Amino acid sequence: MALLDVSNLKVHFHTRNGVTRAVDDVSFSLDAGETLGIVGESGSGKSVTCYSLLGLIPMPPGKIESGTALFNGEDLLNCGEKRLAQIRGDDIAVIFQDPMTCLNPYLTIGEQLIEPLTYHRNIDRKAAKERAVEMLREVGIKAPERRYDSYPHELSGGMRQRVMIAMALIAEPKLLICDEPTTALDVTIQAQILKLIRELQQRHGVAVIFVTHDLAVVSQVADRVLVMNQGKVVETGNTRQLFANPQRAYTRKLIAAIPTGSKAQPRVQDEAPLLAVEHLKTWFRDYSVGYFSARRHPEVGHIKAVDDISLHINRHEILGIVGESGSGKSTLGRAILGLAPVTGGQINYRGERIDQLGNRQRKPLRQQMQMIFQDPYASLNPRMTIFETLAEPLLVHGLATRKTVTAQVLALMDDVGLARNYIRKYPHEFSGGQRQRIAVGRAIATKPEFIVADEPVSALDVTIQAQILDLILDLVDKHNLTMMFISHDLSVVRYIADRVLVMHHGKVIEEGKTESLWTAPAEDYTRQLLAAIPRFEVDAPAHNL
Amino acid sequence: MFKFTLSRILQAIPVMLVVVTVTFFLVRLAPGGPFDAEKAVPPEVLRALEANYNLDLPVWQQFTHYIGDLLQGDFGPSFRYPGRSVNELIAAGLPASAELGFYALLVAIVIGILAGIISSLRPNTAQDYIPMSAAMIGICMPSFLLGPVLVLIFGIWLEWVPVSGWGDIPGDKILPALTMGSAYAAYIARLSRGGMLEVLSQDYIRTARAKGLPERVVIFKHALRGGIVPVIAYLGPAFAGLLTGSFVVETIFQIPGLGRFFVQAAFNRDYTMIMGSTIFFALLIIVFNLLSDIVAVWINPRLRHQTQGG
Question: What CATH architecture is A315-341+355-532?
Fold first, then answer.
């Protein structure tokens, strides 16, 4: 008998705007010790499927309409809230996506770790602490006795995710649900966490449901895969066979959208540098160090976000900046545009120094130099229609008059592939991809020469991501743009950039033409980064997680 | 923590200086003086009075004299209660007001936070609407209405509690505390509902539920700490307001507290009493704001660590 047998699960959300069929007739089963990957884009219902098994979806508006979920022969959907609470955290444990928000900031790590033991097993605190320390050691936390009394904010993201894993496994569950457990982590940390989950699964013989949007990750960890789209199961099967020979168009589309390889042809480059940065430093005061000692020892009293970076970008070139979180790549982009302070060094644009300009002198430059931000949900003003958003920069810089502005906005919308009848709509009426198109349109509205794109596709689904990347490449060609493309995703950078610069702790590690850097990285750190990228494996046998 | 507290105390000095200066000159700008009476006072008596209280000096000299006394903790003599100093008057009224304020605060916190938690658990249902409507009524209903209504119901009709007095008959402190605390309770209920709703939607609450913890543990151990942060910020100024008494409540229930002195001082142009009460009130506000900030820091481990050292 299967450990978990879900059949005909239907979960609907009843909202004011009607009924959303979040999960629509989903069935699957899972044997003990097996790993099932659930893949899908955002809104596909993959997380809701898992959470509804455990009664973790908000009800109302959520409602389980029908279906059964037999866990060891017991129906999770009909066993009552009390029994379900006993099963949660004891027999079935969950690892969530974002370790930064999933641990209670008000309680110590230890206090949160021992809860499954003290509430489910009636183990006294002292014995529970011993077990917790042992578990922390097992997930690779150094000095676990000391960490036991730490608060979550004292730990890095990777360490917090290790704590989450320890917390999930401490009561030795039979089933572990991992919901995007590595999505919020850097690529090298992701590789470590995946390896850790794999090892622990083998040691403890746990069955795993691995929910992710990342096909490469799932191809590495899952025995079987379930592809979901809009609440429905698209197809299911053995991981290797399914990806090698997808039956459905949707699965093929997902696979095709994975950024692979480099740009078709390197763009012709004008050799004159448009932007030259020399020994740029952006240091922020570290407020844990007192004012006077920071004055006396600037080396100690500052966080060196950007530390002595020199680079140049040629006209019509796309320079990729890669690095993990905290590497200073975003700060570098902001400093170049005058959005972050410059502590030392020079920025030259078209041969003229721009880092010392005041706000007024900078205004003509702002027309020339633009930025595309990461999160299209946060970077667009929710109270402005798309017309207002796109018209504003045109009017501010005197590039349009009240009479011509509508025509110009419509032309922009054509450029970025938005239907003209959307012109009076507000950002919340658009999907993530459409919003990012608006954001791109806003950036190119003033006909700039130079654009800093800061993680422009990181918040998007893989199929949308591919569309936006192609849109950016088209526009770069069409408008002869020069671009600095910042991303933590090496595959994306490889796809779009002519030249790449690798950053780590505010310094440049390595720089070179995209393909030569990929094929022959000179530095250890670059090699580590490249090795950590999960590969989409189709033909090689899937690792048993 | 020590550095944080010290820097806040140092910041309070210029604030107090501004309060003292502004009130000093404002009360003198207001028409009328402390010795204006319906019957004309003979000029020589008036002069003698003014000389006695230094009112014949130029205003800036009066100011420096006042600051000098103030630095020694002396609020000066009252202009309208001859022979009694402002310090004595405040000391006389404070115990009753502070005691009443303390009870009212207890009422406000217990009822407010409980009501807030109850409504936040099932938002937009009867369980939410009923306490929140009651809170709205509590905020809207002025104490000069609520007080007499409570007296009528519990004192006269039901005869459960005495209708007035302070410390004479057992139970005579219940109605004033309820009257004074209810508006604050209503406000706290709204704040804690908002705070709890915010926290209950956090990812870490889902984690706690995923661990299979009983609902009471999820709410009181995992959610409440974060949920009452807005309440704590509000409690500082609220406590200062409660301690200094309420003219209305003290009048309704015949309580010998501070509130009445404050209001009468303003009517009487009792310059030193106005100054004394304003400064005292400002000082309380600063102290309790500082206390609530310290509690807020103490409750949040993130801030706690930042303020150690820096």
Answer: 3-Layer(aba) Sandwich (3.40)
